[in-house]
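Field reference: sequence -> structure
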Amino acid sequence: MTPFRPGNNRSLNLEDIAAKAGVSRSTVSRVINNSPNVSAQTRQRVLEVIEAEGFAPNPAARALVTQRTQVIGVVIPQIPAVVFEDAYYFPTLLQGVSRVANQHDYAMLLWLGQSDQDEERFYKRIERNRLMDGVILASAPSDDPLIEHFLRTDTPFVMVERAERHRDRISYVSVDNIAAAQQAVTHLIRLGRRRIGTITGKLAIPDGRDRLEGYRRALYEAGLPLDPALIVEGDFTHRSGYEGMKRLLEQRVDALFAASDITARGALLAMQEAGVCVPDDVAVVGFDDLATATQVTPPLTTVRQPIEEKGARAAELLIRLIEGSLHGPQQILLPTQLVIRQSCGASKSTT
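Structure field:
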């Protein structure tokens, strides 16, 4: 017979742990499921045996008792090519989610969007999934069908954007995109720029619409006209920045506010190809402060938002909702900062 070695827990069950700890099977079950009806001394003895034996409880059995799976879902309704285009924003957001999930002994299940023809199937799979205790919804349009589904089924969920509909029922973690964008455009105005174009983010998403609204408010406060020809709809991608900047160059803009750093990078490429000098001919400000902001030439002035903290705070909020330590919608806005670099033509001392 092969002797048992710690960590080889295939044959161990609750009865084995109970026998080794000198307690009943029900006591072991209460310890595993964090029941308060166990003395501290007994709990410690059982946990020491579990640790020594490398015992891992059957997750399916545990879920039957606790009605929880210790799994949170992260849904990003974007195709993988978009999610990982910048190799920074979404991976950094997920890093924050993962860190907090691990701290609370939760696993993370990631859902990435599909092509248009597979969209309905994508949403149906999420709606039918029974593994998740709750969901973080990132970069979702305001009319995303999952929002109505989660509200209807009382599924705990947190958005990583400002909620526009059902605001009194939805928890979210975001930044004040309107104020941040307004600050960025106002900075360009103070530098003497007057024909300021913008390449927007995806306008189906609150972040995209809010950054456009901030652009509009900055012009209004400065008494500058709002010229529709200087607004190009984009989708946060490099391609939309590249193509959008070609259109704006025809309008003889002297500045650009890009709704993301990746969009700004595409715009910089278009200007380089056209022989346009940045910032002498066109000043540029982006949004996010991704790693790419310091890798482009010239380095990019941009709005810094705490991406990893957004993911971490969303995960912390979701787990508290799942475990019942928090009730009712919670809405958190994190601070942003305008980071001045060479692309806008200003030094820190002039702002």
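Note: The first helix runs from residue 14 to 21.
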